[in-house]
């Protein structure tokens, strides 16, 4: 028997083994659309743009005309109505407004369109618009006690021993008073010495900074995002008003609700809430007041842990206070919930979203905004799509093209293809404008814009073909996981940082996770998933030499774990990484090794585990190093990562990766495993044509599905062995700025 026959036999045996496993785990039935549906996807897969009802009085006959044109001339399959502009009429949430909105729903229902219920007048979500166009925010007018709160700090100095006695006048809720000695950093909670507007305290020896922390009502008119009680008031005012009038459309025509650009950078990025302390105690079992100075200052060796507790809990309140309340309401009324943060492209998210993964935990469809103004959201697509994977969801949304000007078609296609290869599978075009002569944020994406009239239906068919395949419920497949370094950012963040509230406040110079993400997906050619530290603890186990994510839908097995510039880490995470390495796992550290814990009094434990991995006695003198163990475990520290040394580290790991193609071809891709099959989406995000061989792990019978034309064809392919693993090698040709699917039934 010759070598080729042996190779083919091994491939067949591997395929039979795989079929036996998948047959025992998967339900029967075809997941693929018909060739006809792929060529011309049904209405439900067409994109649904934001439809701005802008700066004019909306008329019933114009609603009819524009909906017909969106379907017949643009190729859209629905819309999300966004009331907008100072001159918009009829007034938001009035009966005249609801009459016109209801008419639009009636037409949408008759035409088989899908509607997303946008929950605000303009943006951000949370104010319920203004009354009578006079600028009085509706929510603040009715519920002034439920709007955004801000944490303020009042300071004075005292030298002891002495008696301190002074009046403390403030408007708001006193969260606590802490004295911190300037040199020793000793802290004393002196809140109990405050009575009847005066603090009286016997000051010990030393120089003391007296800090009073007060939660005050900010001037911002939006709902208190950190308070679930307050958000329920907003939902009752807005969401329930729609349901009370249009209940018959919820779950049929209205498929989802959409919230837009909530953020914690409001209130000078010191957003707080009055019940912070009591809710913190309910979760953690201790009073947080003694650690409040860490929100502004270094308090010594407890700084990193204190900030992780305080900022981490603030994100808990944010996720539970806003998105979860809206999601719960949505589920009770037969729809799902989507939306996105503002300023997702801030590298240190603590001052804006708090935690860009975790704040998406309670969105059925996590989302992001690709917008103009030099805001590179593409560097964070993987954060959002990974949030969906971590929290076991299948759909990922991107509001796309807003304020980007009159883009050319190459750019429009490029952006869409990059999004879909990085896990987004629901592109919401921004936007169609009711009054196309008064477009605030170009482009105007309808047939009325002569730049797009001829090719817009073709583009929307392209998006529909991506949707019909990539919205199929299935699990994302990758061999590489990357720890989301939120503990590091929480440890380094503080209020009133030099960058200002809008830019996130505090830059962390060593942060490299967006760069590592781009190196993997855009240069090296390996897909990956971020793992949130809490998910690593709660949902992951070490199985043989892999990390297994134990979700129901988005389960996965990862052979390589990357820690991108992680200075602060939880001890539980570090212990699991140590176990993974000892079991034979591959670990790559970049830029900064872990040096401290996100918990109290555990820094030396973290260092000890690092020293054990790298077999050194002195943590401070670890140089670029490679460590291996008898089980096949391999750890690499790369202090200055780039595409060359990342590729080398992956090559030397000897992992048989899921997808392999020639280095330098710069293909982006995503692989999903679905019922009884696999789909791979490849995009050539370059101007030059690519001719190459793509090797896919396993024995498959591939087909090429072209989303640009709708055509289906059979490629040339063969079977090869690598490290006792069977691969299917497929010859492909992908023109510049185009893409294709490889399908295995």
Structure description:
By secondary structure, the protein is of the alpha/beta class. Among the domains are: 36-142 and 225-266 and 302-472, Alpha-Beta Barrel (TIM Barrel), CATH 3.20.20; 149-217, no CATH class; 659-744, Golgi alpha-mannosidase II (Immunoglobulin-like). The strands form nine sheets. The chain has a six-stranded parallel sheet. Strands 6, 7, 8, 9, 10 and 12 form a six-stranded antiparallel sheet that branches. Strand 31 and strand 32 form a beta hairpin. The protein is flat, with a radius of gyration of 28 Å. The model is unreliable at 1-29 (pLDDT under 50).
Compact overview of the structure:
The protein has 745 residues and is α/β, with parallel strands linked by helices. It has 18 helices and 38 strands. The longest helix has 30 residues, at 303-332.
Q: What coarse outline follows from CA principal-axis ratios?
A: flat
Strand order of the largest sheet: 13-11-3-2-1-17
The N- and C-terminal alpha carbons lie at a distance of 30 Å
> Which CATH architecture of the domain at 36-142 and 225-266 and 302-472?
Alpha-Beta Barrel
Poorly predicted tracts of residues: 1-29
Separate helix tally: 18
What is the SS-derived class? Answer: alpha/beta
Q: What is the CATH domain class of the domain at 36-142 and 225-266 and 302-472?
A: Alpha Beta
Portion of residues in helices?
A: 25-40%
Q: What's the CATH superfamily of the domain at 36-142 and 225-266 and 302-472, by name? A: Aldolase class I
CATH topology of the domain at 36-142 and 225-266 and 302-472: TIM Barrel
Q: What is the mean pLDDT?
A: 94
CA radius of gyration: 28 Å
Largest sheet report:
6 strands, parallel
What share of residues are in beta strands? 25-35%
Query: Quick one: how many beta strands?
Result: 38
């Amino acid at each position: 028997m010759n070598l080729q026959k042996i190779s083919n036999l091994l491939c067949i045996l591997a395929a039979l083994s795989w079929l036996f496993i998948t047959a025992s785990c998967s339900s029967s039935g075809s997941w693929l659309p018909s060739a006809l549906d792929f060529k011309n996807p049904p209405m439900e897969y067409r994109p649904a743009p934001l439809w701005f009802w802008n700066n004019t009085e909306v008329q019933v006959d114009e609603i009819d005309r524009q909906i017909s044109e969106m379907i017949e001339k643009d190729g859209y399959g629905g819309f999300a109505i966004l009331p907008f502009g100072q001159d918009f009429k009829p007034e938001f949430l009035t009966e005249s407004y609801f009459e016109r909105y209801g008419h639009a729903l009636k037409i949408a229902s008759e035409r088989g369109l899908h509607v997303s219920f946008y929950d605000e007048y303009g943006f951000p979500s949370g104010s319920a618009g203004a009354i009578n166009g006079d600028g009085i925010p509706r929510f603040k007018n009715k519920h002034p006690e439920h709007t955004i709160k801000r944490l303020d700090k009042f300071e004075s100095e005292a030298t002891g021993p002495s008696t301190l006695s002074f009046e403390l006048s403030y408007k708001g809720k006193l969260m606590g008073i802490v004295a911190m000695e300037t040199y020793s950093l000793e802290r004393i909670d002196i809140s109990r010495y405050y009575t009847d507007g005066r603090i009286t305290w016997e000051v010990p020896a030393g120089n003391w900074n007296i800090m009073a922390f007060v939660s005050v009502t900010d001037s911002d008119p939006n709902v208190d995002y950190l308070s679930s009680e307050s958000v329920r008031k907003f939902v009752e005012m807005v969401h329930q008003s729609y349901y009370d009038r249009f209940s018959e459309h919820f779950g049929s025509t209205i498929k989802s609700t959409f919230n837009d650009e909530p953020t914690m950078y409001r209130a000078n990025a010191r957003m707080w809430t009055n019940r912070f302390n009591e809710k913190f105690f309910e979760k953690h079992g201790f009073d947080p007041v003694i650690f409040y100075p860490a929100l502004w200052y270094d308090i010594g060796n407890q700084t990193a842990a204190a900030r992780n507790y305080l900022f981490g809990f603030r994100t808990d309140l944010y996720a539970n206070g806003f998105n979860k309340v809206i999601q719960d309401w949505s589920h009770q009324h037969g729809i799902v919930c989507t939306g996105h943060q503002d300023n997702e492209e801030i590298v240190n998210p603590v001052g804006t979203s708090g935690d860009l993964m975790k704040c998406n935990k309670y969105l059925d469809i996590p989302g992001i905004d690709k917008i103009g103004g030099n805001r590179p959201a593409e560097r964070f697509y993987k954060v959002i799509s990974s949030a969906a994977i971590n929290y076991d969801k299948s759909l990922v949304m991107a509001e796309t093209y807003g304020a980007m000007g009159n883009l050319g078609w190459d750019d429009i296609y490029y952006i869409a293809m990059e999004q879909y290869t990085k896990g987004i599978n629901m592109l919401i075009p921004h936007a169609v404008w009711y009054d196309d002569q008064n477009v605030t944020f170009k482009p105007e994406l309808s047939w009325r814009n002569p730049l797009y009239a001829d090719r817009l239906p073709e583009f929307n068919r392209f998006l529909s073909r991506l949707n019909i395949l990539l919205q199929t419920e299935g699990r994302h497949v990758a061999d590489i996981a990357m720890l989301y370094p939120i503990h590091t950012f929480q440890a380094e963040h503080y209020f009133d940082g030099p960058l200002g509230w809008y830019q996130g406040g505090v830059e962390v110079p060593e942060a490299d996770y967006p760069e590592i993400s781009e190196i993997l997906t855009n240069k090296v050619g390996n897909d990956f998933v971020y793992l949130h530290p809490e998910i690593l603890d709660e949902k992951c186990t070490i199985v043989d030499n892999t990390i297994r994510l134990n979700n129901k839908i988005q389960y996965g097995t990862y052979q390589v774990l990357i820690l991108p510039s992680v200075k602060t880490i939880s001890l539980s995470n570090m212990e699991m990484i140590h176990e993974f390495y000892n079991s034979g796992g591959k670990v790559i550290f970049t830029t900064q090794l872990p040096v401290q814990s996100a918990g109290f009094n555990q820094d030396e434990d973290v260092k000890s585990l690092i020293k054990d991995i790298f077999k050194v006695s002195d943590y401070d003198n670890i140089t670029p190093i490679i460590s291996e163990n008898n089980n096949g475990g391999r750890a690499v520290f790369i202090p200055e990562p780039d595409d060359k040394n990342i590729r080398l580290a992956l090559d030397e790991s000897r992992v048989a990766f899921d997808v392999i193609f020639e280095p330098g071809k710069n293909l982006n891709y995503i692989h999903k495993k679905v019922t009884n099959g696999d789909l791979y989406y490849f995009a050539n995000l370059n101007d030059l044509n690519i001719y190459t061989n793509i090797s896919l792990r396993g024995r498959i019978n591939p087909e090429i599905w072209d989303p640009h034309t709708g055509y289906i064809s059979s490629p040339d392919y063969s079977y090869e062995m690598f490290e006792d693993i069977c691969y299917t090698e497929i010859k492909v040709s992908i023109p510049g700025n185009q893409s294709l699917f490889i399908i295995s039934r």
